[in-house]
Design goal:
CATH class of the largest domain: Alpha Beta
Radius of gyration: 25 Å
Number of helices: 13
Helix content: 25-40%
Number of strands: 22
Strand content: 15-25%
Strand order of the largest sheet: 1-3-2-22-21-20
Distance between the termini: 22 Å
Length: 491
């Protein structure tokens, strides 16, 4: 860097450090990129937002630009890059989650004198809407019905029990906010999950008084009493919030949905997925002419003490799609529950412990040599307590691209600018379309973007931008982030 430019940059940095309107900013890297990015970062229209940005040419091992790259900020959903990258290495790309079906007691004269038990081992994909084709060919409930029929069972004198005790903690993460946990994106991890642990509410919003009418709940086995306070408004997206406690059947929904809709879907989180799974299996068995004489029940770690005398005869083992496919969907569509379950199984694999704390410990320790310590409270990025620097993300991205045997799986899991997943609305009709491969992150006052840029066939740039505490509208933050990428790499 020439002395004149160096002096100019030093003056600017000192000015920012002492100007009351800005935090102290740190700029390092190639002078060409610093000169381009500086006016984009110090622009007063950010209104006091905290911004960190790091970009590195990982083809030529050259740092291009780093702005506040050591600041640990809340990264939102790009945490999933940390979780899925670690998960591929700790579990392996061919890892499949398991669910076991068995019975206790004995069979005599076409009667099963005992309980049917669904034992979950943390599979987040059981009857997932993201794997519909898979379950057309691998339907575990139908398989259980067929196997019981072949065993001659016509009557079950016992319960259908959903067992989620494999997870030692089947509750929402303690650092998630109350406005999230009853909504689909805040669905609690569970040792026995089903339907992504979510249900759908369908509303009509054609009433001119702005009142809405609940038309349907799906699946019907989700037992909730809905207090409907949601109204319609001249908006284009879902702006409702569901409130409710875990295992409580009462749900309150407030906020707004778009006006003049015949059937508008709002998704919430299932409070007791193990019970829903047992109920759904009971219905399937009854549809196959197997009579169930007793009720359905559930087991979580807090209400069940293992009976060492219980002997379970396993009749069917169901396996999920391979982890490689789950990782792809996790990053492409930012599926929180998939990421949380991957992290929990990392904790189990490393420490035989499925608590959120050990899940985060397993993920964090995998990356520690590359990144140093990160502050992780969950695997999905929903926690407001997470804190990771952009430099740490660059280290992870560089490792996954240059050193990991899972490079192809990881890279192909990322949304493509203007084309797929959560990045389909980014960089539309720009030179960056199809050349940015990245994971997005969004929470109130937070936006982030991390992944790879391939401006030409010979160069790959790892980048990460995180914006925290921004009073700006989310769509305006998105535009400013896009402008940084475009000005630096496509101008």
């Amino acid at each position: 860097m020439n002395k004149l430019l160096h002096s100019f940059l030093l003056i600017i940095v000192l000015f920012l450090a002492y100007n009351k309107h800005f935090l102290a900013q740190t700029f390092t890297g190639d002078s060409i990129y610093i000169k381009k990015i500086m006016p984009l970062i110090i622009d007063s229209s950010w209104q006091g937002s905290i911004i960190a940005f790091t970009a590195k040419d990982i083809t030529n091992n050259k740092l291009l630009v780093d702005v506040n790259g050591l600041y640990k900020l809340n990264p939102a959903s790009i945490v999933k890059l940390i979780t899925t990258g670690a998960g591929l290495h700790i579990l392996g790309s061919n890892y499949r989650f398991k669910t076991e079906f068995g019975y206790t007691g004995y069979i005599k004269d076409s009667v099963l004198f005992g309980n049917i038990i669904i034992k979950g081992y943390g599979d987040p994909t059981l009857y997932s809407r993201f794997f519909k084709d898979y379950f057309k060919k691998n339907d575990p409930f139908d398989s259980v019905a067929s196997k019981l029929t072949r065993l001659g069972v016509r009557i079950v004198k016992g319960k259908i029990i959903g067992d989620a005790t494999f997870f030692q903690y089947n509750l929402p993460n303690s650092t998630w906010i109350v406005g999230d946990v009853a909504n689909y994106y805040g669905a609690s991890p569970s040792g026995l999950a089903i339907y992504n642990n979510e249900y759908s509410l369908y509303f009509s919003s054609k009433d001119t008084s702005r009142k809405t009418n609940l038309l349907n709940i799906a699946p019907l086995s989700v037992n909730i009493e809905l207090i409907n306070k949601v109204t319609s408004a001249n908006i284009s997206n879902d702006q409702s919030i569901i409130y409710g406690d875990l295992f409580d059947s009462t749900r309150l929904i407030v906020g707004n949905i778009p006006f003049n809709k015949d059937s508008f879907e709002v998704r919430g989180s299932i409070g007791n997925p193990a019970l829903v799974a047992a109920t759904e299996l009971k219905k399937r068995l009854q549809n196959n002419n197997i009579i169930i004489n007793d009720t359905v029940s559930f087991r979580y770690e807090y209400n069940f003490t293992a009976d060492t005398t219980e002997i379970v005869t396993i009749i069917h083992q169901h396996y999920s799609p391979p982890l490689s496919e789950i990782v792809t969907l996790t990053n492409l569509y930012s599926i929180n529950i998939f990421a949380e379950h991957i992290a929990r199984l990392c904790g189990w694999q490393r420490y035989k412990n499925t608590t959120p704390e050990m899940a985060c410990t397993a993920v964090n320790r995998f990356w520690q040599k590359s990144t140093g310590n990160m502050i992780l409270y969950d695997g999905s990025g929903l926690s407001r307590y997470n804190a990771v620097s952009t430099q740490q993300f660059i280290n992870i991205l560089e490792f996954m691209y240059n050193q990991s045997s899972y490079k192809k799986i990881f890279f192909q899991s990322l949304p493509i600018a203007g084309e797929s997943g959560t990045l389909s609305k980014f960089f539309e009709r720009t030179k960056a379309k199809g050349k940015v491969f990245a994971k997005t992150g969004t929470m109130t006052h937070i936006r982030s973007l991390a992944g790879y840029i391939q401006p030409d066939k010979k160069t790959t740039i790892a980048f990460c931008i995180i914006v925290n505490n921004s009073p700006l509208p989310s769509n305006l933050i998105k535009q400013k982030m896009e402008n940084i990428i475009l000005q630096l790499f496509f101008n």
